[in-house]
Specification:
The complex is a heterodimer. Chain A has helices spanning 2-5, 32-39, 96-103, 113-126, 132-139, 150-162, 165-168; strands at residues 10-17, 20-27, 58-61, 64-67, 80-82. By secondary structure, chain A is an alpha+beta fold. In chain B, helix 10 packs antiparallel against helix 11 (237-255) and helix 11 (237-255) packs antiparallel against helix 12. The structure holds flavin-adenine dinucleotide and FE2/S2 (inorganic) cluster (FES) (2 copies).
């Protein structure tokens, strides 16, 4: 039994997280979610279901929204990752997506919020003025137990008028 | 949280390298990981072979066929112009898998090899008589998709084989419909899917019908008896109602009478009727 428990290999991976380069040796059995939270201390990305259903763990991987609970850490070799910690440029200047979420009362308990914001940014990268159906499709993998979604959808609709390329460019992935 | 155990992780850069690993030892290929990571949580120690760097995400077209690389993601297929022109049901099905996050990671190859009764892309691929290109150190072989899955979650793929690509026959029809019924619009594993491609002549008679179903039979299947019943018939509402009834008979014949049958009976009949109606009007349905 003990021998099986200690057989996880470590893999060296290089990746970019919130604009910073990392080179780390990581247990190959870790998910990206574990790496972010337990390995690097970024607790903004939430752990809900760990089966891809709730979206609380959503981060950007090479410009796309993904569930970090369903990516193994070794799979991020060479990748570019953005989490909620990297969204605002500084503590004093919230990103427009964050500001509008607060303004529209789209944050209640806040557990779904980091995931919602990352999915919203991924959507805006693809389409900076999405209609309601497109918004619902983009956020369908993010569950919220508090708001009833109306405020969130209204917030994203509002963003389509005010978001600029400058607000989005750092998240854009180019190979 | 259950512990995942990974005793080896290989990230080959070429197919040659990948098939060499597969010939040497028992590796579990990992593509998007959206099925395999859930399975790993049972704690079984595994050796993983990442297949994401083998350049298997191509979509190409020649005179008769479309070739889709096994590592194409659902997101990629849902917006690919070759797919939407020549194998539209595949693009629609891919666009209905899980959530945006799942579609961004999940691949068509993983969907096929996982061989779930409710894999969304398989019934769509069956409409285009899809064949699978399997590679190993022993060479290349082609398997028909309708013979690939032997029972839920089991296939004829050997452990030393890699799914390279999927070959679909172009079949231009006058109308299509793909209906997916689930408990929730988004993150739902299908309760039932129906794919229909119809070819109708100027006199409103059915020249050809291709119909497949997911989560109706133990493995996703074409409904050949139903297709035969429709061929040559004049389009009228009563015909589609009868087709719905016949589909129910086929389900009971092949899957037996199960606890879910009383629910599935009217649902299947209704979906078949609606899908045929839409396809007869030329609509590519996106419900
Ligand atoms: C929340 C959630 C919702 C989902 N919703 C849906 C849904 O609506 N519809 C649906 O159909 N599915 C759904 N799925 C299932 C899953 O996302 C799909 O089946 C997906 O296509 C699997 O692809 P993958 O690349 O992630 O496969 P992986 O998990 O990487 O692999 C799956 C299997 O295929 C094998 N494999 C993968 N690629 C190859 C290859 N090239 N050669 C040989 N073997 C290979 C792996 O070894 C493994 O056995 C859902 C999953 C989750 C977690
Ligand atoms: S924790 Fe990843 S989707 Fe729920
Ligand atoms: S604000 Fe509480 S879960 Fe969304």
């Amino acid at each position: 039994m003990e021998t099986i428990l200690n057989t996880n290999v470590e893999i060296k991976v290089g990746f970019k997280l919130n604009g910073l380069l990392y080179e780390k040796s990581i247990p190959a059995n870790w998910t990206l979610l574990q790496l972010l939270r337990d390995g690097l201390g970024y607790y903004g990305t939430k752990c809900g279901c760990e089966i891809g259903e709730c979206g609380a763990c959503t981060v950007l991987l090479n410009g796309q929204a993904i569930n970090s609970c369903l990516v193994l850490a070794p799979q991020i070799e060479g990748a570019e990752i953005w989490t909620i910690e990297g969204v605002a440029d500084s503590i004093n200047s919230l990103h427009p997506v964050q500001r509008i979420f607060i303004e529209y009362d789209a944050v209640h308990c806040g557990f779904c919020t980091p995931g919602m914001i990352m999915s919203t940014i991924a959507l805006l990268l693809e389409n900076s003025s999405p209609d309601e159906n497109t918004i619902k499709t983009a956020l369908a993998g993010n569950l919220c137990r508090c708001t009833g979604y109306v405020q969130i959808i209204e917030a994203v609709k509002k963003l389509s008028g005010i978001i600029t390329e400058k607000d989005l460019e750092k998240f854009r992935y180019s190979e | 949280m259950t512990m995942i155990r990974v005793t080896a992780y290989e990230n080959p850069k070429s197919i040659e390298e990948a098939t060499t690993f597969l010939a040497k030892d028992t590796y579990v290929p990992i593509a998007g990981g959206t099925d395999v990571i859930l399975e790993l949580r049972n704690g079984m120690p595994v050796k993983l072979l990442d297949i994401n760097n083998l350049k298997l995400n191509h979509v190409t077209s020649n005179k008769d066929n479309i070739e889709i690389g096994a590592a194409c993601t659902h997101t990629q297929l849902a917006s690919n112009p070759i797919v939407s022109q020549f194998v539209p049901l595949v693009g629609i099905a891919a666009g209905k898998v899980g959530s945006k996050q799942i579609r961004n990671r999940g691949t068509i190859g993983g969907n096929i090899v996982n061989a779930s009764p409710c894999a969304d892309t398989i019934p769509a691929l069956l409409i285009y008589d899809a064949e699978l290109v399997l590679l190993s150190k022993k060479g290349r072989r082609i398997a028909r998709l309708d013979e690939f899955i032997t029972s839920p979650y089991a296939t004829i793929k050997r452990n030393d084989e890699l799914l390279h690509s999927i070959i679909c026959k172009k079949n231009n029809k006058t109308g299509y419909s793909y209906l997916k019924l689930g408990r929730r619009q988004a993150v739902n594993i299908s309760r039932m899917t129906i794919s229909v491609a119809l070819d109708i002549d100027d006199d409103n008679a059915v020249i050809d019908a291709c119909i497949s179903a997911g989560s109706v039979f133990p493995v996703p299947s074409r409904m050949k008896d139903l297709e035969k019943f429709l061929r040559g018939e004049k389009i009228k509402p009563k015909l589609f109602k009868e087709a719905g009834k016949l589909a129910v008979d086929l389900m009971i014949k092949h899957s037996g009478y199960r606890w879910s049958t009383p629910y599935k009976e009217p649902v299947l009949a209704g979906l078949i009727e609606r899908a045929l109606m839409q396809a007869s009007k030329g609509i590519v349905q996106d419900n």
